[in-house]
Amino acid sequence: MSAGDPSMVAAEPSAVEDALPEVTRAGVIGLGAMGLQMARHMAAKGFAVAGFDVVADAMKRAVEHGIESCASPAEVGGRADVVVVMVQSDAQVEEVVGGSGLLDSLQAGSVVCIASSTAPTTCQRLAELAAERGVGVLDTPVVHGQRGADAGTLTVLAGGEERWLERARPALAAFTRHIIHVGPSGHGQIAKTVNNMLLWAAICANYEALTLAKELGADIPRLIEAMSYASGANAPLARWGKSTGKWAEKDMDVALELAQELKLSLPLSGLVDQLMKRIDQEKMKALLD
Q: What's the pLDDT tens digit per position in 126-144?
C-alpha cells in the first residue's frame, strides 16, 4: 500500500488513538483565578498536573495545591496529555499554542483545550496548525464563572472533533458538571458568545426593572422571590447581588466584531455593551437594601 493511499490515511488516526494510554497527566497554562481552580480540581481527582504562569505569585499558589511548576508552556506540554489554556486574550492564546513550542513538545494524540474566550477563527486556525502534528485542539470555553470554578461545577461548551473531546473528557470532567459538544472547531466559542449576549441583556433588563420597582417602594428581595415563579424568571435575577460584577468586556467585543464582519445589525447588543460598563456589584447589591 502506498503512502498516498487514502485508505491508509483514514486508518491512521484510529490506530494511533487505539494505542494511546489512559489520560493521567494534565497541564494548565494560565494559573489565575479560574485556571488555578481547574488545576486544583484535576490534581484532587488524581491527575498529575503541570502548570505555567508568567506571574511568579500565581505559580507559588499553584505549587501549594500540588501543581508541578514548569518554566514554560513547552515544558508543560512535555509533561501532559491534555493541556488547558486559560489566558486573557486571543493574542496570548495564539502565542501559547502556536508560538511557545507547546505543540512541538506534545506527543501525537495529545489535546489542547482552549478555555479562554476567543474569536471562533482563532481556535480554528490553531486546530489546523496542531492537526499537522497529530495533536487535537478543542475550544472549551466555560460558563458559571468563578463560582463554578471554585466548586468544580463549570459547564464546558466544546467545539472540535468528537474524538479529541472524548480523549480530553476525563480531565475536563474533574472541574465541570456538564460538558456539551456543540459542533466543530470554533462552535464552542460561538456558543459562549451567544450565552454572554443573552446573559448581559438579562442583567441590564433586571437592573432597570429592579430600579423602577425600588423607586416605587417594592420589597426587592421579596419581589425577586416572586419573579422566580413568574414568566420573567431568569438565572441572573435568581442570583442578584451574588455575582462578582466583573464582566469580561472583550467577550462582548467579540460578538460585535463578528457582527461587523458579517454586516449584521445588532443594536440591542451594542446598547447592552455600553450599559454593562455602568453596572457593577455594588450597584446591584444596592438595589437589595
A: 999 999 999 999 999 999 9
Rounded to 5 degrees, what angle do the CA atoms 84, 86, 193 make?
110
- Host domain of residue 180: 6-185
Name the one residue in this structure whose C-alpha cell is 475550544: 139
Of 135, 161, 185, the one marking the end of a domain is 185
Enter the pTM of the model.
0.89
For residue 236, how far is the Cα from the chain centroid? 19
Pairing assessment for the beta strands 25-29 and 142-143 based on DSSP bridges: unpaired
**Shared-domain flag, residues 246 and 137:** no
pLDDT tens for each residue of 74-92: 999 999 999 999 999 999 9
Q: Is the pLDDT of residue 230 over 50?
A: yes
Q: 181 and 221: one domain? A: no
* Alpha carbon separation from 281 to 1, 105, 197 (Å, rounded): 65, 42, 19
Beta strands in the chain, from DSSP E residues, in sequence order: 25-29, 48-52, 68-69, 82-85, 111-114, 136-139, 142-143, 154-159, 176-183
User: How many domains are there within the chain?
Assistant: 2
> Looking at the structure, do residues 121 and 221 belong to the same domain, yes or no?
no
**Contact predicate 167/173, CB 8 Å:** no
